[in-house]
Amino acid sequence: MRRTLRKAATSLLLIVVVALGARLAFAWDQARKIPAEALATAPFEQETGSIARSIATGGGFSNPFGRSTGPTAWLTPVYPLLVAATFKVFGIFTVRSFFFLVFLNILFSTAVCVPIFYTGKRVAGVGVGRGAAWLWA
Fold first, then answer.
1. First and final C-alpha spacing in the chain
2. What's the average model confidence in pLDDT over 111-120?
3. Residue by residue, what is the 3-state secondary structure of the chain?
């Protein structure tokens, strides 16, 4: 019985579920405390949001500082393109865009538990893998 309980408490599935729940709870708590107007714009008012806005409005991979500064190599293209696609679907600097991107970041951050677990398991054993994954969660 004790062994079964220990195995269940250190299963990768439970670790991932707890990580997802903790992140969703934190995001929900923060969203309740911050006005919607601030959520729609503040998280994007940096280089990533400016580049994404430029892409979404047809300006290409440019303008990292919120005004016309021309093409840029300021950031790698994957995340600004993902944000730009979100802006195309949910609107530029909207609360819906914010919540979608936060949820996407939560999913990606939670998914990191899996490679951390398997890397720790391969390098130093299953106990270290579980411990490292719990620390990340």
1. 25
2. 96
3. CHHHHHHHHCCHHHHHHHHHHHHHHHHHHHHHHCCHHHHHHHHHCCHHHHHHHHHHCCCCCECCCCCCCCECCCCCCHHHHHHHHHHHHHCCCCHHHHHHHHHHHHHHHHHCHHHHHHHHHHHHCHHHHHHHHHHHC
Any idea how long the chain is?
137
Do the Cβ atoms of 62 and 87 come closer than 8 Å?
no
Question: Which residue matches tokens 């601030």?
Answer: 38
**Highest mean pLDDT out of 28-42, 55-69, 76-90:** 76-90
Q: What is the pLDDT of residues 25-60, one digit of tens each?
A: 999 998 888 888 777 777 777 888 888 988 999 888
Determine the pLDDT at residue 49: 85
Residue type, 123: V
pTM as predicted: 0.82
* Long-range contacts, 26-31 (Cβ 8 Å, 24+): 27/102, 27/103, 27/106, 31/99, 31/102
Residue with tokens 């990191």: 112
